[in-house]
Design goal:
502 residues, binds zinc ion
Length: 502
């Protein structure tokens, strides 16, 4: 048995009784004992690292006096972000990048680590990830890699580093999001000569689900010259007038150049006496796009499509609940204004409107996890200083971030946000995989009914419960699952959650 490693669900850590396996071994300073299944005890002599194969290394392995076996702890693997799954009687161990690390073969009632195994990646989403281009691809609403490279080489955006084009970059959310091919007819001429001269507007909706604040519709307004856009969220379509009036008046105040016209479709929300009176008072012309040729009325429709597409990919990436669609559309608009390039004018929408370059230094990936600092004051000495939150975009009137605080189930705007630094591979969508049906009978006897396997290393995520809670809130399907953990340690951590199952 000394050359066989066994996958064990019961043990809390990797352990062996054979010194020869260790590549490094440190003595332990305190007396530590391991209790075995037969209630016997083994003294821990040291802790060290073991390299089982080129791809599978074990850290923090206990060297236990008189232990006849070599055990790989499943829970410790899970903690390190390694995934363990079963398929047709074979157990497969995958690392955080979903590369097959080793496979396990049935060995009596247990699984044995197959050390002869050598393989290439089973599934690789990221062919040759370049940290920067991935980071910015996600922060900038999954905009195309080509655009990112072009923008970075033109130096039109502050805070955007030089990005290199990489071959075969495939982004998962993008694949899902960009199901419908969009045809962008390039516009070869500029019809207007200054920002605010002509505004295009259109409404979108109703959405399938109401947003968190109870909105169903979006009003999208695009400035023809800069293609700078605004989005407003509405419960009813007749709220359009209020938003248009406020924006028109604001733009008139901002610029000394006169607004000339508004262009919309024939929708009732745009064609009514309130609008007629308002336009007449300001001397604005109301153009109806139906009477124009498609390339001209397409401005706002194209923008709609872009925003919806970006929003969908942003929601997809971290599986943010659909009720945050308005936050996603709002963020998409915020990003689009900063990175949309009017190629013919060689500037971004933002620069065309404000006369200065946009900065993207503060941008973060929508839906990513973050922490919000609690207000000092009535904090207990041992109470956590941080609240777990999900990033939902940018405040419209300040430099604050919009975040969803999980514990309070509340969306707030705050500057006190900390983001987790993740490397590109870990930025792959979080996924909890349920592997229950395929567990062999021997494991089922041990009450392994469900395994939660995650792609992000646990030790980077500080604690499991808040994360699970977040995922449960995000994905309703999680709520129905019985949470039976293969291991006591994990079970303890899951206990507070189980009471919250609705
Ligand atoms: Zn993408």
């Amino acid at each position: 048995m000394e050359d066989v490693w066994i996958m064990d669900y019961g043990c809390s850590r990797h352990m062996t009784g054979h010194r020869k396996w260790f590549s490094s071994l440190n003595p332990v300073s305190t007396k530590e004992y391991i209790t075995f299944g037969d209630n016997g005890q083994g003294k821990v002599l040291g802790v060290g690292s073991i390299s089982l194969s080129a791809k599978l290394s074990l850290r923090e392995v206990a060297f236990v006096w008189n232990l006849g076996f070599n055990l790989v702890s499943v829970s410790q693997l899970l903690d390190e972000g390694i995934e363990v799954g079963f398929k047709k009687g074979v157990c497969r161990v995958l690392d955080a990048e979903e590369t097959l690390v080793c496979s396990l073969l049935p060995f009596g009632q247990v699984f044995r680590v197959d050390l002869t195994f050598v393989s290439g990646p089973t599934r690789c989403l990221v062919a040759s990830p370049s940290a920067d281009i991935w980071k910015w691809h996600r922060r900038l609403g999954h905009s195309s890699f080509d655009l990112l490279v072009r923008l970075s080489s033109m130096g039109l955006i502050q805070g955007l580093p030089k990005l290199k084009a990489e071959k075969e970059l495939v982004c998962h959310p993008c694949r899902h999001g960009k199901m419908v091919a969009t045809s962008h007819t390039p516009v070869s001429q500029v019809m207007t000569s200054y920002p605010g001269e002509l505004l295009h507007m259109d409404t979108l909706g109703p959405a399938r689900v109401a947003s968190v604040s109870g909105k169903w519709y979006v009003l999208v307004i695009v400035d023809d010259f800069s293609r700078f856009s605004w989005v407003f969220f509405m419960e009813f379509k007749n709220e359009v007038f209020g938003f248009v009036r406020d924006l028109v008046l604001r733009l008139r105040n901002e610029s000394h150049k006169a607004m000339r016209a508004i262009r919309s479709d024939n929708g009732k929300e745009f064609r009514n006496s309130r609008f007629e009176n308002f336009y007449r008072d300001l001397g604005l012309e109301h153009q109806f796009s139906s009477s124009y040729t498609p390339p001209q009325n397409g401005v706002v429709e194209r923008k709609n499509r872009t925003l919806v597409e970006m929003a969908r990919m942003m929601l997809d990436e971290h599986r943010t609940p659909r009720r945050f669609w308005a936050e996603a559309v709002n963020t998409a608009c915020y990003i689009a204004n900063r990175i949309f390039l009017r190629a013919i004018l060689g500037k971004t929408s933002y620069e065309l409107r404000f006369g200065r370059q946009p900065s993207v230094k503060h941008l973060r990936a929508f839906g990513c996890r973050c922490f919000v600092l609690k207000k000092a004051g009535n904090l207990d000495k041992f109470e956590s200083r941080c609240l777990d939150a999900i990033f939902l975009g940018y405040a419209s009137s300040s430099r604050a971030f919009r975040v969803w605080i999980l514990e309070a189930n509340q969306v707030v705007e705050t500057c006190e946000v900390f983001f987790m630094k993740l490397c590109p591979a870990q930025l792959l969508p979080l996924s909890f995989k349920v592997m229950m049906k395929k567990a062999p009978p021997s494991l089922r006897m041990r009450k392994v009914r469900l395994m939660l396997v995650m792609q992000e290393p646990l030790h980077r995520l500080q604690s499991l419960p808040p994360l699970l809670r977040a995922l449960m809130m995000m994905d309703d399907s999680c709520l129905r699952l019985p949470l039976h953990s293969p291991d006591d340690k994990l079970k303890q951590r899951l206990a507070p959650l189980r009471t919250q199952e609705r």
